[in-house]
Specification:
The complex is a heterodimer of chains A (230) and B (111). Chain A contains nine helices and no strands. In chain A, helix 2 packs across helix 3. Helices cover 73% and strands 0% of the residues of chain A. The N and C termini of chain B lie far apart (46 Å). Chain B has helices spanning 3-19, 23-45, 65-96, 101-106. Classes of the chains: A mainly alpha (230), B mainly alpha (111).
Chain lengths: 230, 111
């Protein structure tokens, strides 16, 4: 009881600290939005300003974000390693317990979800979305595929290898701008000489690569959890 | 929504983290704290009456795209770290047969 009282007191103190720090934060905000609105499209070729930050202004950040995803996936696989190699994960999803209605509707919804995910990935520079969000949708569609076909075999090692090579490809493509513009981690095409249409080629390529990498990573996490559930 | 409400969400997560007796509930408390941080950042980047940060559909005032881009990073990293923590939970359960903090300590965990 006394411990709970102390805890509530501590939380109250923390709340007041937050409250007073908020006053400083409110003075600081709303300085960068007008800059991005004015120069974002011309400098990066991306109409979606969030994508222009993720894939151009702060690309260094996004690369390490994708790297952390890769490291976490490797960690999950290493923790869940078994002596016996299982070929598939059918013992977790029992086909006889899954309702037929669910399976039938999954068959209908699955291609739509896959197409929607690819749409989000490819249109990441003009509409809301991008590689990370679209990759999550594609991974969800693959997750539904497990319910449709429980005997489907997945080779985790192959998926992780593909993911590693995709990450290397992303690093190489992000560094290519050193040879064309003299700076690392920005658009290959110089905004002074190329129009926004040409610049968007780079954004589409990078979005597709990031999207596939995220989808494969989440797929691996899902399969590792299925194999662990005994 | 007021930014102060997001502080309450963070504090709810802290309370859960310090009182929960179950490992999985502790992981969920961290996730709740993370949601509070995400809400706080999106709240501070928002402008009254501002439109979405897409040039072709923007009005004169837009919401700040920088916190939104940062929060994508937070969401992706948060989900993977949660997955890693839950996988460790499964391993702890296989080893000790329970996911209660006190029972694990009583059975000689953490030594």
């Amino acid at each position: 009881m006394i411990r709970n009282g102390f805890l509530l007191l501590l939380l109250l103190v923390l709340f007041s600290v937050f409250y007073f720090s908020l006053q400083d934060l409110l003075e600081f905000q709303k300085t960068s939005a007008s800059y991005f609105l004015e120069y974002g499209l011309d400098e990066t070729g991306s109409s979606n300003l969030v994508t222009s930050i993720l894939l151009d202004y702060r690309l260094f950040d996004s690369l390490f974000e994708a790297g952390i995803l890769l490291i976490a996936v490797s960690g999950i696989i290493w923790i869940s390693k078994h002596e016996i190699e299982e070929k598939n994960a059918e013992f977790m999803i029992d086909k006889f317990k899954t309702p037929d209605l669910f399976v039938t509707f999954s068959r209908l919804v699955y291609p739509l979800m896959l197409a929607f995910g690819f749409y989000i990935i490819i249109n990441g520079h003009v509409s809301p979305g991008g590689g990370f969000q679209g990759g999550a949708i594609v991974a969800t569609a693959i997750l539904i595929l497990y319910y449709i076909d429980a005997e489907k075999e997945t080779n985790i090692k192959l998926i992780v290898t593909i993911e590693k090579y995709l990450y290397l490809t992303i690093l190489v493509i992000a560094s290519l701008s050193f040879f064309t513009r003299g700076t690392f981690f920005t658009n290959i095409f110089d905004p002074g000489t190329f129009d926004t249409g040409t610049q968007s080629i780079y954004l589409i390529v990078l979005n597709v690569l990031v999207g596939f990498k995220v989808a494969l990573g989440l797929w691996t996490i899902f399969t590792a959890f299925l194999k662990e559930g005994r | 929504m007021d930014p102060l409400l997001t502080f309450i969400v963070i504090l709810v997560g802290m309370y859960g983290l310090s009182t929960s007796k179950n490992i999985i509930k502790s992981v969920f408390s961290v996730t709740i704290m993370e949601s509070g941080v995400i809400l706080l950042f999106l709240n501070l980047g928002n402008t009254e009456g501002g439109s979405i940060p897409i040039v072709s559909r923007a009005s004169e005032v837009i919401a700040d795209p920088l916190p939104q881009a940062l929060m994508i990073t937070t969401i992706v990293i948060g989900s993977t770290v949660t997955a890693l923590a839950l996988m460790l939970c499964i391993k702890v359960f296989h080893h000790y047969g329970t996911v209660e903090w006190r029972e694990i300590l009583a059975r000689g965990g953490g030594k």
